[in-house]
């Protein structure tokens, strides 16, 4: 809800690519974009300390291409 939504101040600014997210326990996994690494998988527990890139899967470029952006995360 609007009232229950707040921005998490993270050390590494990024924006979420789309609304495709998957809940895994008390965390959410999603793809996001930052200006250094491009599109990479992130995880968040809803706190600043618990929100970070899972791994830079493709250090040479984006891990999520425009072709793959329609794919769904699955557990």
Detail the poorly predicted runs: none
> Could you state the order of secondary-structure elements as H and E?
EEEE
- Secondary structure: helix percent: under 10%
Oligomer: single chain
Q: What's the Cα radius of gyration?
A: 12 Å
Terminal CA distance reads: 25 Å
Strand-residue proportion: 35-45%
The total beta strand count reads 4
DSSP helix count?
0
**Mean pLDDT across every amino acid position:** 77
Q: Please summarize the sheet with the most strands.
A: 4 strands, antiparallel
Class by helix and strand content? Answer: mainly beta
Shape: globular
- Identify the strand order in the major beta sheet: 1-2-3-4
Q: Overview of this structure, please?
A:
By secondary structure, the protein is mostly beta strands. The chain contains no helices and 4 strands. A 4-stranded antiparallel sheet has the order 1-2-3-4, with no helix packed on it. Strand 1 and strand 2 (27-34) form a beta hairpin. It is globular and about 40 Å long. The protein starts with 14 loop residues before the first strand and ends in a 22-residue tail after the last strand.
């Amino acid at each position: 809800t609007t009232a229950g939504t707040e921005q998490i101040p993270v050390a590494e600014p990024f924006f979420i690519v789309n609304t495709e997210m998957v809940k895994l326990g008390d965390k959410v996994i999603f793809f996001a974009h930052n200006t250094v690494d491009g599109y990479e998988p992130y995880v968040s527990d809803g706190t600043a300390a618990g929100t970070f890139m899972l791994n830079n899967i493709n250090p040479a470029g984006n891990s999520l291409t425009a072709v793959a952006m329609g794919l769904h995360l699955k557990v």
